[in-house]
């Protein structure tokens, strides 16, 4: 009987890799600039692996709504708002 890599990690005391849920999208606002742009990190499934992005505030709102993004606080994995575009609304109030 073959042993899987996950089973081997458990036996060796290593943490098992986190399962990715591609349906969950995350946004973490890093800066809301005065010139109308929002700097943010976008991730799919795993909030620790993110892409840095910059969009105009209105495009950011559309992006968050289209992605149904969950807004994360400055700390890993802390959900700061509900889905469906609330990330964009909260980014506007950060100024």
Describe this structure in words.
With 95 residues, the protein is of the alpha+beta class. The protein has one domain (20-92). The chain is built from three helices and four strands, in the order H-E-E-E-H-E-H. The chain has a four-stranded mixed beta sheet with strand order 3-2-1-4. Strand 1 (25-32) and strand 2 form a beta hairpin. It is elongated and about 55 Å long. The N and C termini lie far apart (59 Å). Residues 76-85 have low confidence and may be disordered.
Give short descriptive properties of this protein.
about 100 residues, about 25% strand
Q: In which range does the helix fraction lie?
A: 25-40%
Structural class: alpha+beta
Beta-strand residue fraction: 25-35%
Q: What do the pLDDT scores average to?
A: 74
In DSSP terms, counting alpha (H) and pi (I) runs of 4 or more, how many helices? 3
Strand order of the largest sheet: 3-2-1-4
